Amino acid sequence: MSAIIAVMNHKGGVGKTTTTLNMASAFAAGAKSVLIIDMDPQSNAATGLGLDAKSISKGSYELVLGDAKIPDVALETDLPNVSLIPATFQLAALSSVSPDEEDPEFWLRESLQEDATEYDYILIDCPPSFGILSLNALVAAQKVIVPVQSESFAIAGLQQMEKSINDIRLEAEHDLDFRILMTLSDQNQKLHKLVNQEVRAHFKEQVFETSIPVEPKIAESAFLGRPVVVHSPNVRGAQSYVRACAECMQWIEGGERLSHQQAIVN
Ligand code: ADP
Ligand code: MG
Prior knowledge:
By secondary structure, this protein is an alpha/beta fold. The chain has a single domain, classed as 3-Layer(aba) Sandwich (Rossmann fold), CATH 3.40.50.300. Helices cover 43% and strands 13% of the residues. The protein has helices at residues 16-29, 44-48, 60-65, 70-73, 107-114, 132-140, 154-171, 190-203, 216-223, 228-231, 236-253, 260-265; strands spanning 3-7, 34-38, 75-76, 82-85, 121-125, 143-149, 177-183. The protein has a 7-stranded mixed sheet, sandwiched between helices. Strand 6 (143-149), helix 7 (154-171) and strand 7 (177-183) form a beta-alpha-beta unit. The chain is globular, with a radius of gyration of 17 Å. Mean pLDDT is 92; it is low at 259-266. Adenosine-5'-diphosphate binds at residues 12-18, 44, 128, 183-184, 212, 214-215, 218-219, 222, 237.
């Protein structure tokens, strides 16, 4: 069975797509087969993998509606072991789904359950809102990675996220589990350091030990259509994503939490 992970935060620009693409690349480097599902109508996952989003005519919209199966809409990418179900602009129409529809937040889960998949990991990139698209991702997933930028009000935003995740856990009757990943972190900035400490004090082991630093190569490689883990594997930002991926694997497999040093060795 695939491990299904949603990458979600209701804020934009916090590193959701970057985390999705780099985690996927790091999983794939460990010979795991990975499917990325883009649930954000901005289609950034395709662009970040060097695909021309404008030339793509079908994807997650058809999958969610049950009009296509995974193999009909999954694209091969330049990265071995990484496939992508892209987002198209039609996906935005789902945001205004009719209130008469029964349980529309369950559609993606149903599509994934119907389709037996050969993937080890399915990563779902969410849009920056709590709407129906993110709800579909959260209902389908077993785990949620919440990328968080070290800024004021981080805790308040996270408490809101935690409440939404708890509501979905009850509604969808599943054991949805979340972890926070501190992103765009600059430890030379006092505010970042304080927020990082505050989030860790509050959410404890629900925070990845690894933080992702501000790394110019991350933005540069995204612009060139290659995740930094593949484009510049030796820079600090890439190595942080590899460490976060090792922690994530451990979390999914349900083993003991690795210490930071063990995560690096592994
Ligand atoms: P989201 O999906 O949450 O909207 P993105 O992953 O698209 O956020 O990131 C927003 C922007 O910040 C992108 O231009 C991306 O390349 C850049 N970015 C993300 N993470 C980092 C980082 N750690 N260091 C530098 N730039 C980053
Ligand atoms: Mg995004």
